[in-house]
Amino acid sequence: MSSRTSPKRVVVFDYGFGNVRSAERAVARAGAEVEITGDYEAAMNADGLLVPGVGAFAACMKGLKAARGDWIVDRRLSGGRPVMGICVGMQILFADGVEHGVRSDGLAEWPGTVEPLKADIVPHMGWNTVEPPADSELFAGVDTGARFYFVHSYAVHHWSLETVNPRLRAPRVTWSTHGEPFVSAVENGALWATQFHPEKSGDAGAQLLSNWIETL
Q1: Is the pLDDT of residue 1 over 50?
Q2: Phi-psi category of residue 145: left, alpha or beta, with phi > 0 → left and psi -120 to 50 → alpha
Q3: Can you say whether residue 41 is alpha, beta or left, with left for phi > 0 and alpha for psi between -120 and 50 degrees?
Q4: Fewest CB within 10 angstroms: 18, 34, 65, 176, which?
Q5: Catalytic-role residue among 24, 60, 87, 109
């Protein structure tokens, strides 16, 4: 009988908003068995759920709810089942988002508002560095000064969630700067997310995805 362990199963959640094919390829290269689907049972039972997102905050939320993705994310996290959001898939995890003066509700897994970037050049498109905390698991093994690929015009500029229970680990927050500092990644128990696109970030992004898969 072989002692070789089976690869972790990851579902890239397909709800109509996200670069699902590039995410699928990157996660497969990182060593997981990957399926692109919006199927409820598959998304609930996978070892890890990856939620991509592109476009407008409100449109992504509408698509996610239509696919029951809001319920799936909530139920998985209630059971400590890993979820990772990418780009707008990260933004919708916050309480709300403001685009063109219109406020839309997010999933409210974290407090905070997604707001327009205040910078000379918007959108923030291209390579940028990150400032992870020293105890980050997500960025373990990633070279200091590594660059990641961003494409966004909105971000969270203020982080307010802490823990008052000394037995619980406070969320680990990574920052980047484009015009002003913004949240570029979060590690919070079973819920991890990145504002940048790890699937488009070369070796550094591949290491990051491998780190996530190792926690599943």
Answers
A1: no
A2: left
A3: alpha
A4: 65
A5: 87
CA distance 153 to 114: 10
Catalytic residue (choose from 24, 109, 187, 199): 199
In this prediction the pTM is 0.95
Tens of pLDDT, residue by residue over 115-128, are: 999 999 999 999 99
Distance (Å, whole) CA 115 – CA 98: 5
Q: What are phi and psi of 27, to 5 degrees?
A: -70, -40
Out of 124, 152, 178, 197, which one is annotated catalytic? 197
State the average pLDDT over residues 42-59.
Answer: 97
Determine whether 109 is an active site residue.
no
Structure tokens at 48: 């890890």
- State the CATH architecture for 9-214: 3-Layer(aba) Sandwich (3.40)
Residue 60 appears among annotated catalytic residues: no
Q: Is 87 a catalytic residue?
A: yes
- DSSP at 142: P
